[in-house]
Write a structure and sequence with these properties.
This protein is an alpha/beta fold and 187 residues long. The chain has six helices and five strands, in the order αβββαβαβααα.
């Protein structure tokens, strides 16, 4: 699975610069305000004074073009997949995906449903999964911490994996989206 790739070690000046840049990226995560499933409910408390996600540099943005994180907040319906692909591909590189809840991992309580997806990273490159049904705000913050660490370590390159393996992703996506009318890629 893409999620478990080992960290890269900095060797030259270019890689050192990338490491410093990654530290800046990790401390300034802007999230596309877009919900797919029940887990969206648990995102709202993150903005309150109790959890205060902005102290970590995490902020919600109204458009994918100003964001670098996409949260798949629970089950992903087959009808929603096309919209999520469109949103993801409009986010500029580097970009990251956090998937919330059991439904994104193995289908959860909808594992045998005809209209939800079971294993999300067959369709989109997930950087961090957060377990639970539904994950509490503390668990989501923990997921963000894990993502920050992966970015700092140079391991959060799902966006590169997506580009390099676009044929694989497209093949899986087109098995679900029968009326495919998206452009080749929106970057
Ligand atoms: S994991 Fe639970 S809370 Fe999340 S989308 Fe699935 S059923 Fe809803």
């Amino acid at each position: 699975m893409y999620c478990n790739q080992p960290p890269e070690k900095p060797g030259n000046k270019k890689e050192l610069l990338e490491k410093i840049t990654n530290m800046a990226r990790a401390n300034s995560l802007w999230v596309t305000a877009y919900g797919t499933g029940c887990g969206s409910i648990e995102l709202r408390p993150l903005g309150t004074s109790r959890f205060d996600m902005e102290r970590f540099g995490i902020a919600m943005r109204p458009t994918p073009r100003q964001a670098d994180v996409l949260i798949i907040s629970g089950y992903l319906a087959t009808k929603t997949l096309k919209r999520v692909i469109r949103v993801y591909e409009q986010i500029q590189d580097p970009k990251y995906i956090i998937a919330l809840g059991s439904c994104t991992i193995n289908g959860g309580m909808y594992f045998d449903s005809y209209n939800t997806l079971n294993v999300l990273d067959k369709y989109l490159p997930v950087d961090v999964y957060v377990m639970g049904c539904m994950p509490r705000p503390e668990a989501i913050i923990d997921g963000f911490s894990l993502l920050m660490q992966k970015i700092k370590d140079g391991r959060a390159h799902g966006w590169k994996h997506y580009k390099e393996n676009l044929d694989y992703y497209r093949e899986n996506q087109k098995k679900i989206i029968t009326d495919w009318d998206l452009p080749d890629y929106n970057w």
